[in-house]
Write a structure and sequence with these properties.
This protein has 378 residues and is mainly β. Helices cover 4% and strands 46% of the residues. The protein has helices spanning 81-87, 308-315, and strands at 10-16, 30-31, 36-37, 40-42, 45-47, 60-62, 66-74, 97-100, 103-106, 111-114, 127-131, 140-147, 151-155, 168-172, 174-177, 185-191, 196-212, 219-226, 228-230, 248-256, 259-260, 264-272, 276-278, 288-290, 295-303, 319-326, 332-346, 356-363, 374-377. The termini are far apart.
Length: 378
């Protein structure tokens, strides 16, 4: 009997491209853990509009080549970092830390100063978690304004004078903010049971949809758009993905407007990048994928215990949302929307049981953080 490909042996691998639409010459493929994959080649159908008098179609051709489709993930710590970076059009910072008893705080220029510890490992724009000072206000998360080996000027905290002496630690946050830097990938669908492989090139994330619900894993669906497709020998055996367990909603927390809210029954978050395939006369393939306006929106559902959220909607009161996902190993991923506005509220009655309110929200650029949303991983 002829062997047929089965889903249980479907594999998916990827590599970042240097030139969009071109797979690197000797790619180091990486396994992408996934729960679904709909990547496919696409060509529009073009039909002749001529009438030959016999009421029958005479000519059909296929149009510009491209690829598209969704990839479904159960979101896990570290496992999907490349995909998150592409979705937020940004890159993760590298881990960096400094510790010592020679670090002092100065109020005059809102700076940390050291005699031997090298503070130049941090750079302007970094977010640094500071701990160990005796004065509580000198600890917390600070944004680096400038840094040299002996001085780091910060914002976000109002420092008071404190001499060196306590054991102080400074750790760069693994913070990913919505930006403007795009990354394209080459993907390979691996049908290893029949030894067949399908490649997709110039693939960008066009939209991400995150769903967090009780009794379920945190699920992220990436809607992709790309430039080309082929069917060749494998691009290589991929490096295995990390084995971190998926995030779930059983132990996470949600903060709305700065206060913990314990009545939420679900969050659906959408990050739409609004990319557009570029097509030109003389080419049968897409020549680029053009960026668009990044928009963040979503839906929050919660049990009705008061009408606070409805009042925020009606008064156009800006708020904020922070939700933290935790995995069974206590690793966390915190999603932050520092400036949101509710655009709709509903709490229909349809029979017995608790009423559930549904709020539509849109996230806006926050002037303090300089971004619409950011993710912190720890």
């Amino acid at each position: 009997m002829t062997t047929a490909a089965i889903g249980e042996q479907h594999g998916l691998s990827y590599v970042a491209e240097v030139t969009p639409g071109t797979t690197p010459g000797t790619p180091t493929m990486l396994q992408l853990r996934h729960i679904s994959c709909g990547l496919k080649p696409v060509r529009p159908t073009i039909q002749s509009q001529e009438s030959w008098g016999d009421a029958q179609l005479q000519s059909t051709i296929l149009g510009v080549k491209g690829c598209e489709g969704p990839i479904g993930l159960e979101l896990s710590h570290s496992v999907h970092d490349d995909m998150l970076a592409a979705l937020l059009r940004s890159s993760w910072p590298t881990t960096q830390n400094v510790s010592g008893t020679d670090i002092a705080a100065a109020a005059a220029d809102n700076s940390y100063n050291s005699s031997t510890s090298d503070l130049s490992v941090f750079a302007a724009g970094d977010y640094v978690t500071v701990a160990g000072f005796s004065t509580g206000g000198n600890n917390g998360v600070a944004k680096v304004v400038s840094a040299t080996a002996s001085k780091m000027v910060v914002s976000g905290l109002t420092l008071t004078i404190e001499a060196a002496g306590p054991s102080v630690t400074m750790d760069r946050q693994l913070r990913l903010s919505l930006g403007t830097t795009d990354t394209s990938f080459s993907f390979e669908r691996r049908l290893t049971d029949i030894t067949k492989y399908k490649q997709f090139t110039g693939v960008y994330t066009n939209q991400g949809s995150l769903s967090v619900k009780p009794n379920d894993m945190a699920k992220l669906t990436l809607d992709c758009v790309g430039m080309g497709s082929s069917q060749t020998a494998t691009l290589g055996t991929p490096t295995a993905a990390a084995t971190n367990q998926p995030f779930n909603a059983l132990s996470g927390t949600i903060t709305e407007g700065g206060s913990v809210i314990a009545t939420v029954t679900g969050i659906d978050l959408r990050v739409a990048l609004n990319k557009t395939p570029a097509e030109v006369v003389g080419s049968d393939s897409r020549v680029a994928i053009d960026p668009g306006l990044s928009m963040v929106s979503g839906t929050l559902t919660a049990r009705v215990t008061d009408l606070t959220l409805d009042a925020k909607f009606w008064a156009e009161t800006e708020s904020s949302l922070v939700f933290t996902l935790t995995d069974p190993d206590s690793e966390t991923q915190q999603w932050n929307l520092p400036r949101t506005i509710y655009t709709g509220w509903d709490a229909p009655y349809s029979g017995r049981g608790a009423l559930v309110q549904t709020l539509e929200f849109t996230a806006l650029r926050d002037s303090t953080t300089g971004t619409t949303m950011y993710v912190i991983q720890s």
